[in-house]
Amino acid sequence: MQMMQEKAATPEDMQVQMQAWMEWAGRCGEGLLEMGGPMVGNLKLTNEGGFPSDKNVVGYSVLQAEDMAGAQAMLEGHPHLGLDSSCEIETHEVMQMPDKA
């Protein structure tokens, strides 16, 4: 079976996509701590060794919000969600550790 290849994005397509990302970043303001970037070569490590990840994580960003509801609000209209109906975003909260003072 031959797989269909996706049409390569034109420079104009890429510019439109980048503009959508920049507009999203602008709406996040100071809450966007790190724009992040694309991810490749995902690896799952276990006691038995390293294996290809089955999570299909393709990118990351670092946000700062008061709570998960605030993070969810920042992600409304995120360009990744408009790419394809299978696209999704997971949010993970970093637990604050007590100061070691």
In short:
The chain has 101 residues and is of the alpha+beta class. It has two helices and four strands, in the order H-E-E-E-E-H. The protein has helices spanning 11-28, 68-75; strands at 32-38, 43-46, 49-52, 59-63.
Give a written overview of the molecule.
- It comes from Geodia barretti.
- InterPro entries: Dimeric_a/b-barrel.
- This protein is an alpha+beta fold.
- The protein has a domain at 25-82.
- The protein has two helices and four strands; from the N terminus they run αββββα.
- A hairpin with a 2-residue loop joins β2 and β3.
- The radius of gyration is 17 Å and the shape is flat.
Distance between the termini: 62 Å
Q: Spell out the helices and strands N to C.
A: HEEEEH
Oligomer: single chain
Number of strands: 4
Key terms:
101 residues, alpha+beta, two-stranded antiparallel sheet, 2 helices, 20% strand, flat, disordered N terminus, Dimeric_a/b-barrel
Question: Could you outline the blueprint of secondary structure elements for this entry?
Answer:
Elements: H1 11-28, E1 32-38, E2 43-46, E3 49-52, E4 59-63, H2 68-75
Antiparallel strand pairs: 1-4, 2-3
Protein name: YCII-related domain-containing protein
InterPro entries: Dimeric_a/b-barrel (IPR011008)
Organism: Geodia barretti
